Amino acid sequence: MSLSVQVDQRGGHPVVLVAGELDQPAVPRLRGVLFETFLAHPVVVVDLTGVSSVGMHGAGAVAMCCYTAGRLDRDLRVVPGLALTALAERIGAAGVLCRYRSVDSALAGPGVLVGAGARGGTRAAWAGLG
């Protein structure tokens, strides 16, 4: 299955809907859509619940987009889904990549991390990285 990426509007914010396999060949497409979207909007929700499998390159691309968005004073709110959550927990990145349980919670604003219990949006997760 290939990767499907679609941008919808919901609650006044763009929601990037991603489905399929988030592997190395899919990374440039996803990264391009995410960059284009968060450069045009201060808050972007990324719904990865439709992703059936994710590799290290895919997880790394999502993490780098979160970091870059934060450095540009943007908020990229990731709804990880099962595939990314499982990988993020294995590599110790759940606190950054697994922030929201649903698109509705992401649209509601910065909130409790799914795994760690800290508060804040994407920028807060990366604040210590300078």
TrEMBL record:
Gene3D superfamilies: STAS domain. Residues 3-62 form the STAS domain. It comes from the Bacteria. This is STAS domain-containing protein. It comes from Actinocatenispora comari.
